[in-house]
Structures are given as structure tokens and as C-alpha cells.
Amino acid sequence: MTDKPIKGGVATWACLPGFPPAVIFPFTPGERFGVRSLYEFQMLMYRPLYWLGRDGAPEIDWDLSVGEEPVWDETGRTCTVRIKPWKWSNGETLCADNVIFWMNMLKVKGPRFGAYSEGYFPDNLVSFAKVDDDKVSFTFDKAYSKNWVLLNQLTMITPMPKAWDRTADGPADATHDIEQAEAVYEFLMAENGDVVEEDNSHRTRWAESPVWSVVNGPWRLKSYTEEGVVTFVPNEHYSGPNPPHLDELRQVSTTSDEQQYELLQSGDVQVGFLPPGMGVQPDGDPTKGGPNPLGDGFQLEPQILFNINFMAVNFSNPTVAGNMIRQPYVRQALQSCFDQEYGAREVYQGYGWSQTGSIPVLPKSDLVSPKIAERGGFWPFDLEKARQLLADNGWDVSASPAVCVRPEEAGEGIPAGTELSFSLRYWEGRPSLARLMAQFRDDAAKAGIEIRLEEVMGSVLVAEDGPGEKRMWELSCWGGGWVYNYPTGENLFQSGAACNFSNYRDARADELIAKTVTTDCLEALYEYQEYIADQAPVIFMPTFPRRLFEVAGNLRGFSPINPYGLINPENWYYIDDTAEGEA
């Protein structure tokens, strides 16, 4: 029997608690740079140069990409990209100028873009230029890994229409005059509205904006309400493949896992997720759905991403807490207090796995260092090891919190009498995360480390506890981490990177990261990840499916799951489950 598709209909998606779409301008700053605003919101309307993920595999989807495959010259330093002649919704044709407009802004405002890393794109370009109306070229300062250039550099580009090249005074020309890029950026950020403000009043204006209503993707924004309900409708001028089947796609804000689960049970949403801890994977394989509490009316789809989970630790904190964090042995002790196996087995009910370092363990690949895999990480759960690290470095661990008794050994800026205590802010509204944090607190106390827990709304947490100099937060956990394109470390651990959440700076790490981007040799990747695993610039946490998606039984086209986190609701369609199928 075959499914009988139905044209039209409305599908409603329940957003993760505390994470409504916060930025519509694709030039998204580090404090809001994440899956929610980019992959599940912006990219429905504004297509990037290259689309990550094809049929569930971690590769480029050339059909959905605005750019064709790069062509390299014989030096291996210059590549040329042809732009497909798709249409913007105002009738403009996608062209080389749209890419140059983005590149000029990136050249001027790179540090304000979340994927920027100092010394890399566009800093590593000798030039970029319009070769023809539909072609652009990029000349790099040396030969790099072509795989890395494609997946980690050129994927940063989102072509921008001529209609966006303006200021409050009217049309501008940052496309051809890079000196105008600053003023155009300021105008577009003002049109977006405050990226930290949580009130939705400025977001309600996005749908009618003469800027944001110019789209080239399969969807356009119909409305964004004060209550956080986002409604998309098909872009009737879309000229790419796979136009939408649905009449509308709605995204609704939720405040807790329990609330969105109730929406699923009531039938008010067709795409949501099973709260972590409610589902059990009896076979211990987190890539496969186990028994579904919602029954046959929903499909259970684990969302396995090419990602790592971690807790950020703030190297830039100017207090004694920052001085302690800057000591490797303190971070190593913290990592040794985190029982990842408990989290994977008990908290996530078999839908989790230990993350041993900076390279994703799943999906399985040869990118993980054999040395790390064999040891289960450099600092696996070991409370006695944590206590010994502290005792060997000047701390009295006979009580908890431990007290500094030999400051000359403890490290610079840690006076005698200092108690080993940290505040840990984490995402509220997620019972599984709260349970994991409580276990970490209790285990750390046994080793002499006091952890003071504080729940914070998710979007507030990532806005306030992100990268930046002299910020006062100490430890921060939003329950996730980073989804990689190609797992080199320039985004997370390069000194000065816009998404270096821990504000980590280390010359040796920078040197090793630089090696990974100039060769496809796995030994360079192994050397880098082993150093990071030992240094613990973040506290690695158990990784789990980003969501255990619950999809209405009569909604098709949702799978295969994109391993990078992008979504294609234009592929979704309802079937007539009341009609008899045909053989």
C-alpha cells in the first residue's frame, strides 16, 4: 500500500523551552549563534551558499545549495564558485554581487559574526572578487584542506539581496564600496532589534519589514506574535527545488518540557519531542527509538547530530574564581567529577553516550583519536583522582569546600584561605538537566569542590554567559554544545573566536588548530584533540540526541534526520490515513 499525499494543511512545531527564534538577520552574533535561530528559522527564508546535510549523511546537498561545487586552480589557493540564478521574492536574481555584499560585511564586522575566528575566514583571504555576474573567486593566503574550506569556511556565507544594501537614509552601496559596510550593518541590526532583549515586541515587526520580507528560500514569515507564535507560509516566488506542500508552518514557544509534551498529547502540535528521561532505549542504542509513550499516533525519531556537549568555564572572569579556572588542574578535577556514564544510563535512560573530547563520538567516524577512545577520555569520572589533583596543588581536601593552604602551589591570584567554590548557572525548565547538574554538584562536593546551582531562562543564559572580556559568570551550562561541520577547533577553542564560549586562550592550542586546517591528515586532528582533552577548556558532558522527536503519524517527509540540525519542512506533507491505499 502507498501513502496518499494531501496538498496543504498546517503543521505546528513546539520549540525548545526558553529558545524562541531570537535573530532574523543571518549575520548573527556569537551570543545568539545557534541551531534555533539559524537552522530552524533563518535558513527557511534565506538560503546559505552551501546546504549542509544530504539524505541524512554529513555532506553537502548540491541540489539545495545556492552555489555550485567550487572549482580550484592548479595552485590549490584559488577557488571559483558559480551562483545559481535563483530568484529573490522581489524579482531580483541571485548573483555574485549578493555574495560580495556578504563578504564586505564579513571583512568589516567579522568579530560580530558567530562563526568568525580570528586569523581564519575572511582574514586568510588574499582577495575575493566578482569574476562574472554569476561567479565569485576566493584566493587564500596558502593552500588549505579543500574539505575544510568547503565545510567550515564557504558555508559561512549567506548571500544578501540588493534590497538589504541600505541605511536609514535610503539605498547604499556596501556591495561595491566596503567603506559603507559599517553603516549598512548598523541599519540592519537596528531593523533586527536588540539581540539580547527577550520581549517579542520588536520581532512582531519582522514579517512586514521591507528588509526581512525579501527572501529566496521556500518560506516567508507571515507573523511573529507577542506570545512567540511564529507562522511561515510558502514563498510563492521560490525558484529552487522542493517547493512546500503545506499551507503553513507554525512554531510555538514553550516554557518547559512538560508543557510541550502536553501540547503533543492534546494534538495541538504535530512536531514536538519526548522530554529526556521519559523515553527508555532498552537496547542501549541511542540512534534508534525505543518504546513510544505516545503510542502509535506518533513516530519517535532520535535527532543524532554531529555534535559535542559541554559546560563552559569562564577564563575571563576577573575574580579569584577566574584565577582558579585558569589552572589546568582545577579544570581537570572538575572533569573528573562528572559521571558521564551515570548521565547516559540513568538520566537519559539509554539515549546518551559519554563525550570523551572535542570530536563527536557519534555518528561513528575515524576522526576520534584512538588514544582518547581507548582511555575513555583523559579525565574520566574518578573522584579520588580529583581529590589527589587538588591535594597535590596546595588544597586541604579534608573538608568541603577544600581550602587553599599552599598558595605558592595553587596558582597565581589564589590566596591562602580561598575556598574552592563555583557558581553554576544552567538552563531552567529541563528536569533531566537539573538532575544531571545536581549529581555533578553532589559528586564534586565529595572531592572538595562546592558547586552553587542557579537556574536561568535558556535564552537569557546564552546571551549573558557567552564570550566576552571580564564577564562575571563562572560555570555555565545550556544543556548542549556545538554542532560541527568539520570538527577542527577554530570556532570553539581558537583564541578570540566569536564562539569561544569559555574565553579560552592558549598558544599551543592555536598552533595545533592551525595544523588541522592545512591538511586532511588525521594525525594532526588527533594531536589537537588530545591536547584539548587534557587541557579541559570546557567540561565535557554526556551527549544525547538533541531531541527525541515526536512526529504525528500522518505527517511524512520528516526523515531522514539532518546530522547538522537543519530542517526542510518544505518536504513535509500529510497523508490521507482514512483512505484506502493502493497496491
UniProtKB/TrEMBL annotation:
GO molecular function list: peptide transmembrane transporter activity
Keyword set, alphabetical order: Signal, Transport
SUPFAM superfamilies attached to this UniProt entry: Periplasmic binding protein-like II
Every Solute-binding protein family domain range: 69-499
Pfam families the record matches: SBP_bac_5
Compartment(s) of residence: Cell envelope
Keyword Signal tagged: yes
Signal peptide as annotated in the record: none
GO cellular component, one term: cell envelope
UniProt key word Signal: yes
Xref: Gene3D superfamilies: Dipeptide-binding Protein, Domain 3, Periplasmic binding protein-like II
InterPro entries: SBP_5, SBP_5_dom
BP GO terms, sorted: peptide transport
Domain of life: Bacteria
UniProt record similarity statement: Belongs to the bacterial solute-binding protein 5 family.
Descriptive protein name: ABC transporter substrate-binding protein
